[in-house]
User: What shape does this take?
Amino acid sequence: MQITRVRLLCLFALFLLGLSRPSFAQEIFSVAPVGERTSLKPVVPASTSVISRGITEVDLDPLLDRINQANDPRSSEPRSLDELRALERQQSKVAEKIQSVTVNVQQGSAQGSGVIITADGYVLTAAHVAGKPDRDAWILMSDGRRLKARTLGMNRYMDAGLLKITEENSAGWDHASLGSSKNLKSGQWCIASGHPGGWVKDRPAVIRVGRILTLVPDRTVASGTVSQALRNDEVTLSTIVTDCALIGGDSGGPLFDLSGKLIGIHSRIGTDVSDNMHVPVDVFSRSWDKMVKGEAWGTLPGYKPAIGVVGSSEDPRAVISQLVEDSPAQKAGLRVGDVVRKFDGSAVSSFQELIQAVEATLPGDRVRVEIERDGKIMTLPLVVGLQDG
Amino acid sequence: MKKLIRATSLSCLFLGTLLMYCSNPTIPSKSNAAVYVTDSARQQNAMQLVQQPATNRKRRLDAETTTTNANQRTYYTVLQSFRKAIGNNWMATVRVLADNRQVAMGAVIHPDGWVITKASEIPENGLTCRLFDGTRSDAQIKARRTDLDLALLKLDRKELVCVDWSQDVSSRVGSWLATTDLKSMPMAIGVLSVGPRQISSVKAVLGIQLDARDEAPVVSMVLPGSGASEAGVQADDVVVKIDDQAVFSRQAVLDILGSFKAGQHVDVTVKRGKEEVELHAKLMDLSNSLFDPTEMEVNGQISSRSTGFEKVIQHDTVISPNQCGGPLVDLYGHAVGINIARAGRVCSYALPTDIVVPAIQDMLNSATDGKVIFASANQVSGAAKSPEEIVVRAQDSSVIPAVK
Assistant: This one.
């Protein structure tokens, strides 16, 4: 067992070092619009859900008024044992309530977390957990129940994703009380839950407590390729950075304020333990209808998929006119002159559509590419790469 | 199998990224990596380390230097507010040193110099303990509980302040927990993340790959970060002896190593060229991060023994492996457990009081032939049978002398 592992390590080392070449596949995306995808049919009719209060909201202990209202991080610290104990009671109450709304999300080979936000079973998660719209997924509750779900739309630019539990529950699902990410302050206390490391038997959702460190308003991550319109739409929202430590499997899990209202969704981390980033919850309300309809748009910040081919948007077909050295496309065996007909299950009839099909994948996805070469149709497996810089 | 691929591919990504960083010395290694936090094969096959654009990075750093400190939950004024909460337990906290280097923390459990600590972090000999008052004392290992990874140490001291054990083992998830230091301000704080549960053990590994083409135990690769790598095992070394047992085949090496637990040491003699080299290596839990530099990076240092516990509570305090072994205290001045492992970025484990207290009794018993008995306060009244000496919760700090 051990031996196999190590051998694989070497193989992959060779493969992936190749990918870090600086010239990697940049060309194809210089013309890429980060527009919306409209080709997908709505899976669920536009929302008729009544957003009710949710079960996680907890009255704030009056002893915490000063801490909660402080505008300066230095004033949001507990100063006495009484305040510290009040903070503890508040955290414990919220921690207890958020168990039944925190879920594990499994879609394909991805495993992350999520949070139920309506009685009819809408579940917020991260875009990179949901993967793609209109796919089957599983929801595992903290108590071990396993439910069928379907992925809906996603705003990959902000890493916000949506699912819906497709199983009936006449009593309505326990769901989180929605807050707003609008008036968050640095220094504010918050409570995170999720299923780090994926689903673990007999382990409920894992609770962490921390503070908001920074709110990063201008996230120019997809630098240069983001259309101005999109920028205006998204940029006013701030990514939340906290010291609630997150790890693989937490993605999509909820971040709550001290009164148990949902303020964010876990997204990504830096190497430092106090570098944990969350999607602000307002992203969801802002584009709720689009997401419910199953639309997907944007690419993940700093995580843009690429395959390393160049073509012309004038040509009515998706013809490859240039191939980047050592790119995923070259490794998959694609050649200049090949006409791409299908990419990852989506029919492709122009280079533009190929760009869209690539953007709908994630770096690392294993996809099949159907091409026409010298009048013959063939299908090649390809591993999507990451666009540099 | 899926898991393997994921783990392995990651490592390479990391290599690639590292190279990129190296070529640009102006980029600080912190915060230029963002890792999406799914546990997914899809994700992990892809690159987890993502460079953020320079503009973004700069902004982040600026923000951090101006505000982050006062914002953090571990900011010193927050920690200060714990001073009154943790009682005298800090006076019962010790640092366990070997060669002047801290290897673990410990907890005084009996005034006559009895201390417990995390067993797998301490060497057999040459131990010293530093106490809250700045004094040092040599320490001898008197008993071990390998199943719990606890060791009982004896210092030549009297009238020490002891840990005040909690009688209530039902802390609520979300409650504050302080890891005590030798001063009144805690070393670190966190909250209870998951209540008591069992952590089953995973295989212990040395971190070498043996060449499958060869019947003889030839090392073909050493995993970076593993016990073997730290001990200095090199590729092409031939293993000739493990703990004084001569080995001639790959299978023999695997069989012998299979009988060890994580955290234990083995003497490995290897033949390197013409000379024989004797090395002392530690076995580690076969965790994913051992194969995965990205995970290693985001997880930080993990205890070599971090699995295989009958019952632990999980908390989110950020501590390092050599800060395990000491008391974990609630806001009411009672120790609810002993930190037993750093298990990951979001995860530290502590053995809860109801596991630790019987283990202390057991170890004291075997170390003193039943002459020294430990008892926590609620047991004193009824359970005092015929001990030569009974100690109560030492907060009252007075020793209750012989109950004869």
Q: What stands out?
A: Confidence is low (pLDDT under 50) at residues 1-50, 219-230 of chain A.
